[in-house]
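Box 3.1 A note on notation
Throughout this textbook, protein chains are presented in two layers. The first layer is the amino acid sequence; the second is a token string describing backbone geometry. Keep the layers aligned when reading.
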Amino acid sequence: MKKTHKKYVALLTTLAVIVCTLFYTNTAKADTENSWEPSDVVKVSKCTVNGSERTLTLLKNGDLYFQATETSSPKFAFLDVMNFGFDKMYGTVYVLTSENLLGWWNYDLTNSPTLNSVFKNMSNPKDPIGDIEKLLFDENNEFVIGYKTITGETYPTLTMSEMKAFLEIPDDPTPTPTPTAPVSTPSATPKVTPTTPPKNTTDPVVTPKTVTTKKVVKKKAGYSCLSIGNKVTSKYKLAKGKLTWKGSSKSKKYSGIKSAAFIKKSGNLVFLTKKGKVYTLSPKGKKKCIVKKKGKKLILKNKFAVKVQVGKKYINIVNK
């Protein structure tokens, strides 16, 4: 019995060593490897500030991760990110969210990722600048140099004095960072296939032309018609709050409608109800709610809907 007992003890000890080894191996691997696949990456930007390299990685789901030379692995920073970039002078991170809101964060001033708003007077933050259309980049599309609002106003990036005034930090001299150009990372490395040079021939080479079919909206018999080429794919009319829509094989009617328009890319109809809800209607008649409340206005460009005003915000709907 004693020999058998010793065998069991030895076996259990061996198993414990194996389990501990596997645990620490997997833990070390999790700490050093990224938690995403290369195909999930949309964009990577890098900037070196005071000898510390900072890296921002944007994933397809809108999550933005931050890593510095002195940190062991990328850390989650922000969500619902539509675009981002470093400024060249101070390495400040500028983030444009999916709700068209702008935020900024400077790692040297606050280590913890925090999106701060932008105000017309950073020393007296009372008038926030909202409804941002896009970030403005330099001629090489590398560093953020400013931003543009929905109404067309443009603003430059913040100075160190403005950021410190907002954060209530004494304005002492700050070392000038040495930036590194951001790098856009493709989702996959393209394969290079060798090709055989064509033989000399006297026959002419005919290159087919790429024809882009135009999408236009025209009025006809009281209806706003969406035409792709010479074909009308769907049409609608809106009168006294009543919407009538006709597709290739279906027709639908809705009441309590405030406004409607087509979305160019998808061909969907988007309409805003008087209760503030916004729906899309596909060419096949499939209805989908994209805004549940506080919808105020559809923003059009060349007769197509491009944005919807929700409260004081503007939501991009060109891909809806």
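The helical segments are 2-32, 160-167. The mean pLDDT is 79.
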